[in-house]
Amino acid sequence: MAEASIPVDLLNPGQVFACLGFMEAAEILCGPCEGRFTYDGSESQTLFVVRVDGADDPVLQALRFLAAAEVKEVAPIGWSVPLARRKNETDDKYAKRLAEHRAWLEGLERSPAFPSSGPESPATLIAALRAGGKEIILDYWTDDSSRPDVKFWAGAAGYPGAGLTRDALSLVRTISDNALAAAAQDPFNFSAPQSSSFRFDWRRDYIPLDAGFSPNEHGGIEMVGYPFVEVLAAVGMQHARPARVDPRNKLAYRYGVSNAMLPTVFVRAVIGGEGLGFPMRVFRMRLGWPGQEGQARCIVDAQEEIRI
Questions:
Q1: Which of 118, 193, 236, 300 has its CA 20 to 30 A from that of 220?
Q2: Distance, CA of 294 to CA of 247 (rounded, Å)
């Protein structure tokens, strides 16, 4: 049996979701696992402990997998999407783009098992992460279920979730094994310049009206992101969702944590605010519109709501 612990900020929802992401990854890479948040009071800075039946460090194994993983876009069998002609685009330029688009469609991996009737754009194609004969699927943004929507990004021209995953993993691709071992001690504080993300970590995001300016208008400013938080939070959302406080309000969610040592299936439920009789702390997550209302959302802050 192997056990690892990592620092986590309970007021950073992305880090909490990423803790579950470590558990989901460990289930695939190391075998059955359990996890707990080790708070002993009202502190927000604590440790998350993950334990697996196998002998390998589950946190380090997950980071090694992510650093080595190839990202493939997967579409339903028979899926296609038309290519719109741009305004004032010449025949030659459109023909070139059309040929590239058709080649991309032909090169897509196809699957008969798709979580929805088919995406309306490439933005919600499945992302399959593969390395060492193992596979982790990311498709929470396209499941067509009644579960709360936690797709916070919008992106120009429907930038795909697979692309965001690939961009984040490119930031950790060249890390040596020694550096990965060091990062495994505090993976949520591993940072790198990051131009786009799933918007799970509020430390990178901003609302221009609140900030007083937009970094996008200043070429010398680089936004620093947290790629392990972003990707692992997406993994954590595969089988769990924070709960909407009000079904009509897209900017308020509730999530929970427990200091009981629980198997992955129960941690999923607690993240969604379901106590199931275990000790539990519940937090409310507040979102905002960084741009046009109804498009991308970002996490503004989180506050503790109740303790059971």
A1: 300
A2: 15
Closest to 239 in 3D by CA, of 73, 6, 17 = 17
Taking 70 as the pLDDT cut, the residues of the chain under it are: 143, 155-158, 206-223
Of 129, 134, 133, 108, nearest to 119 by C-alpha is: 108
Question: How many distinct structural domains can be found in the chain?
Answer: 1
Give 86's contacts (C-beta < 8 A, 6+ positions apart).
94
pLDDT in tens, 244-285: 999 889 999 999 999 999 999 999 999 999 888 999 999 999
Quick one: tokens of 203?
């430390």
Residue 49 lies in a domain: yes
Nearest by Cα to 165 from 46, 262, 71, 268: 71
Which residue type sits at 65? F
Task: State the burial class of residue 101 (Cβ atoms within 10 Å of its Cβ: 0-12, 13-18, 19+).
Answer: middle
CA distances from 201 to 56, 127, 194, 299 (A): 28, 20, 12, 7
- Give the CA diameter of the chain: 67
137 strand-pairing partners = 128
Range of the domain at 49: 2-69+153-307
Q: Is residue 131 part of a domain?
A: no
Give pLDDT, residue 45: 97
36: nearest Cα among 1, 2, 5, 11: 5
Is 76:111 a contact under the CB 8 Å cutoff? yes
* pTM attached to this predicted model: 0.90
Return d(Cα 287, Cα 10) in angstroms, integer.
Answer: 16
The closest of 18, 72, 68, 16 to 45, measured between CA atoms, is 16
